[in-house]
Design goal:
40% of the residues are buried. The protein is α+β, with helices and mostly antiparallel strands. The longest helix has 27 residues. The chain is globular and about 65 Å long. Helices cover 31% and strands 31% of the residues. The protein has two domains: 201 residues, FAD/NAD(P)-binding domain; 89 residues, D-Amino Acid Oxidase, Chain A, domain 2 (2-Layer Sandwich). The strands form four sheets. Strands 1, 2, 8, 9, 10, 11, 19 and 20 form an eight-stranded mixed β-sheet that branches. A seven-stranded mixed β-sheet has the order 6-5-14-15-16-13-17, with helices on one face. It has eleven helices and 20 strands. A hairpin with a 5-residue loop joins strand 9 and strand 10.
């Protein structure tokens, strides 16, 4: 089966979904494809910063998502040996230190808004297997498997929004420079104890960062940095010894941790790295988000950066043409900002321990 569209977007995360909605609203025909049957996935970036908030408000999406549930962070806290060391409050003009937005909520709103336009099509359980490339080496769509059947989607522009291991990027032969950061990350989610305030809490355990992110719907997400590549050996160690460090750092979590984290299997391991590509598009293809600039979890920039990419691309794609010069200008502007953000991440990771030094 064959389909034709102006733009085919691969990957229905917030960046890809937002671009699809904005293009559909501009009368550009768009097919958004997602390899999973359900578009909302666990343990993804879900914290908005001021820039992400501004983009959602700009496109009249923020209030709709807010109705489904989100949670502004009221403080950033640093803890040592179970005691509060220092507390940072938000700028009154901003009113928060980030906002937790469940990905299911943001995607539900964005895609429901996109479905209001007849030129928008969503295909789930659809996996790209190859790109369509003509004799001039120009990409004009994708080959995919949809619900177990082979399909082709011909498009004037193909957008790779399919994450850090982007199939579109790999098939297009776009190289990335990959940087390891010396740590991996263990994720877990537990119910928030009674009276838990919306906050981000930090501790230093064995020289590595331990973070607690309050989530909407009554949860706390644990992000625990561990030495890169150490998890196989760590799993061989007594689990209780490991988890006792978490309880010592945050004693108020003891009951919730003991009830919810019983073994190593209750953690999800994230291989932490960042990458950056010098080429974000050309010859019928463009990229956004992690596909060309994977961020580490530090600072929660990833989600917001992907949405900024989408907003930038949407401004230069019209039903009549996709201006190559404008595409290059958008790419150049976004590259400069991403390079700065990735440098900030490295600096934050390098200097994290200094947050626990109290000067008299």
């Amino acid at each position: 089966m064959s389909y034709q569209t102006d733009v085919c977007i691969v990957g229905a995360g917030p960046g890809g979904a937002l671009l699809a909605y904005l293009l559909a609203k501009q009368n550009v025909s768009v097919i958004l494809i997602e390899r999973h049957q359900k578009i909302a996935k666990a343990f993804r970036g879900e914290h908005l910063n001021e820039e992400g908030e501004a983009i959602l408000k700009k496109h009249n999406l923020f209030s709709k998502i807010e109705k489904l549930g989100m949670l502004p962070m009221e403080s950033l806290e640093y803890w040592e040996n179970g005691k509060l060391l220092k507390k940072i409050l938000p700028d009154p003009q901003v009113g928060h230190l980030g906002i937790h937005v469940p990905q299911a909520h943001s995607l539900k709103v964005i895609i429901e808004e996109a479905k209001k336009y007849p030129n928008f099509t969503l295909m789930t359980n659809t996996k790209v297997v190859d790109l369509l490339i003509n004799d001039e080496k120009r990409i004009y769509g994708v080959q995919a498997m949809c619900e177990g059947k082979e399909i082709t989607i011909e498009s004037r522009l193909t957008v790779g929004a399919d994450g850090r291991y982007s199939t579109v990027r790999q098939k297009a032969g776009i190289e990335v420079t990959k940087r390891k950061h010396g740590y991996d990350l263990l994720w877990a989610r537990i119910p928030a104890p009674d009276g838990w305030e919306p906050s981000i809490k930090m501790a230093l355990i064995d020289g590595y960062q331990l973070s607690l992110f309050t989530q909407a719907m009554g949860y706390v997400q644990i992000g625990w940095n561990i030495e890169e590549g150490s998890f196989p050996n760590l799993r061989k160690q007594p689990f209780n010894t490991f988890i006792e460090k978490l309880i010592k750092a945050f004693p108020m979590l003891e009951e919730s941790v003991n009830d919810s984290i019983q073994s190593w299997n209750d953690f999800v391991l994230l291989d932490v790295h960042s990458n950056f590509s010098e080429h974000w598009g050309g010859n019928g293809v463009a990229f956004l988000g992690d596909a060309v600039h994977t961020m580490t979890p530090t600072g929660a920039f990833g989600l917001n950066s992907a949405m900024k990419d989408a907003d930038c691309l949407a401004q230069i794609i019209t039903p009549d043409e996709i201006n190559r010069l404008d595409l290059m200008q958008c790419e150049s502007e976004r590259k400069r900002e991403i390079e700065k953000l990735q440098a900030i991440q490295i600096e934050k990771e390098k200097n994290f321990a200094t947050q626990f030094v109290i000067y008299s």
